[in-house]
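To the structural biology subgroup,

Please find below the input and predicted structure for Glutamine-synthetase adenylyltransferase, which we are adding to the shared reference set this quarter. The sequence is reproduced verbatim from the submission form. If anyone notices a discrepancy with their own records, reply to this email rather than editing the shared folder directly, so we keep one authoritative version.
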Amino acid sequence: MTTASLSTLMTRMPRRYHAGRAEDAEALVAALDRDARTLAVNAASTAPYLLGLLEKEASWLQQAAEDPHGAVARVIGTAAAHPPEGIAAHLRQAKRRVALMTALADLGGAWGLEEVTRALTDFADAACQSALRAGLTPQIRRGKVPGMTEDDLHDAAGMVVLAMGKMGAGELNYSSDIDLICLFDETRFDRDDFHAARSAFVRATRTMSGLLNDRTADGYVFRTDLRLRPDPAVTPVCMAMAAAENYYESLGRTWERAAYIKARPCAGDLEAGARFLETLRPFVWRKHLDFAAIQDAHDMRLAIREHKGLGGAITLPGHDMKLGRGGIREIEFFTQTRQLISGGRDPDLRVRDTCGGLDALAEKGWVPSHAAEALQDHYRAHRMIEHRQQMVQDAQTHLLPQSDAGFDRLACMVDMDTHDLKADLRTRLGAVHEITEGFFAASRAPAPARDVPAAHIFDAKVLDRWPSYPALRSERGSEIFKRLKPDLLARLAAAGKPDEALLAFDGFLAGLPAGVQLFSLLKANPQLADLLIDIVSTSPALAAHLSRNAGVFDAVIGGDFFSDWPGEDALAAMLQAELSREPDYEARLDGTRRWAREWHFRIGVHLLRGLIAPEVAGAQYADLARSVLRALWPVVGDQFATRHGPPPGRGAVLLGMGSLGAGRLNATSDLDMIVIYDAQGVESSDGKRPLAARLYYARLTQAMITAMTAPMAQGRLYEIDMRLRPSGNQGPVATSLGSFESYQKTQAWVWEHLALTRAAVVAGPHDLVRDVEQLRREILGSGQSRAHVMGEVAAMRARIAAAKAPEDIWDAKIGPGRLQDIELLAQGATLSAGQADRAIASGLALAEAQDIVRSGEAATLQAAYRLAWALQCATRLLSAGPLAVRDLGQAGTAFLCRTLESDTLAELETQMQQSYAQAAGIIDRALGAYQGREDSNEER
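Predicted structure (tokenized):
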């Protein structure tokens, strides 16, 4: 048998929709031939789910595209035969591959509807077979199935899985649930063994369902529904065939008859399943012409419409292509009802699939040929639209888009202009409704209109200037926003102070350079609008960041935006995995910026929403910065080594200083660092352009600074401050381990030793990390007198006070009794005690232990420090510069008061003044005893 490649089979080409996703896809499918590559790129540009599949299965696709039929058949065959061990991961990989190839074959017209649905159904059969085997094997091995051994696994010891609905008909849609009924042949067991056997089959069924249905890191296989069995509220998930037969004979309903038109055995004991279906034949197929089924089917249609609220005229946005007027279900009901009417007398009408059923009905004269042909054409077209909507996010949806952007996407997927697509949909839906409604002769009155509350009257001058903003200058952006605007205004009107909220949103909108993507996102996810309004009303700084980086909203809908914080190690691993997928150095730098920006935004939103406290936010900002440094340092090193060779000796570490070392940053913190290297006597590197060791590490450090601070396409990462290195700005940017040790032990000022109390190695080779930390502890533990250290601290405090006064009460960092003041005292106490603990709380406890402060005063200072930190963290989220409290709106003021647990701004101001004064008084008294006792500069 000759094989045909994907490119050979293609008959159409989807259009490119999303440029960013297209660029991402290009890098994944470069090895494909031109047509297949274009198909894959364009397909991925229309659907995030397809791009995700490409990211995982691009290498498989390269070979599979040469023979798509054969490739899918091999995947299905392997899935069916896979042993129970490792089956969950294997089936999920197989699902990705089948989903990817069927999508491309469908979008490219390489396969028709029947080929697509058959491939999906065949895989579902194979998955059920393997999952059933995996569920049943341990039951048999443990002797839970009486009288059965592993030799009975070939027919599942008499258990069968019936595929219902679209799976039974071989018509699975792209993101379909699978409806299953699980039964077992009770005649294979002695009466006394019945209950034990049923319990084992129930456990096997639950295992099978979990293997298919449960979401893991690899995804899921199929959403599985077992509720079509008889009386599911009271019956076990696997029941005896005799019990099921008794139910249908006495209590079976028309909808269950219709369901069994499509039923077939798909896994387990296929022969027993076929026998069971034969016993149900009189129930499903009545001997007489069953016109009573028409009313039953009509009642079902009305019940579905009523339940789903699908009455009224056909309107395209949000129209349900499955259950709505003129939709797929109307064609299926039309076909199945006619089959039920006459199928008892004519076995040729007992056809499972819809199009095959229409063919049979037309051939037998039960449906006019032109009507059958029209419904088949509309059915295939409807299913094509349904599949494409499901491809976007792998969602079990049957709804047409709500927005113009969604229709544009759909039009790209079917290679049509949006206007033509909408016209075609209206024509088809109307035609289906006309054909089927004439048969059922029923309709439903439209639902009464709901009362709409009066809207807030906003300042027309503000609204009138919106069309002039950059984000609304494009026709597409303006069009989407026009549809979005009423909902946004309604949400703004619901704010505590609508006019303040409007002005805040106006400022955000004015700074937004482009709006199509954000407006489309808000239209598709209305809940994001509330978050946006909350942000822009509360934090001008965060709003300005958001207007420049609206893509961070993508993170909100990724699913884990509000989950638990992963921690530094997990973050570093995530970023390393992200960077490993980037093709080159510049892409890695941009990727780091994009990734860090989303996590930075998440911390800010969590703090803004009160989901985390300021102390937690400080730790999370530090985790994020450290994870970036840990992931990026080796990337920069590898890039530098391509020109100058590997690092001479043991390499270099990044020593975090200040807040970075202490693990407490805020939204706008710089990163204080020192680079320490150990060349181990190696004079120069060995590369294309060798460099002397000292020069090598100096330039490597500069490369890292550039990597962090350069304003690339995705912005900056962090500002870097290296003034705490030996000799400050006059010293080399990278210091050898030997020089660092010598300097710290013989030349360093006391303030430099104080800085070491908060230092921590962030990144670098493990052995060098260990040695630098050991050296830090050795230096701090060298034993300096309390009088000497605290005298220097007192002098430093005086110099700081003389050099810079606090801006105002809201400046929590600099000034008596504030952050820097308390930190200085704690660091001095840590150094004078010869300790190396970085926490301010530990330093304050040491101050009390050494009688630098009185009993109980450490707790007072710690409380003052926590309060000042909370203020600092909150104000930096609200504003990148000094906080203008008078300009804070209601939302910003409420956030500030809530975060610092005060009822009013005036109460908070009083609270801060009292806290500063109390802490300053303690420190004044504590350091007063040491004032003037510091050594001279010559006696460091």
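Summary notes: The chain has a mean pLDDT of 87. The domain at 590-780 is CATH 3.30.460.10 (Beta Polymerase; domain 2).

Regards,
Lab coordination
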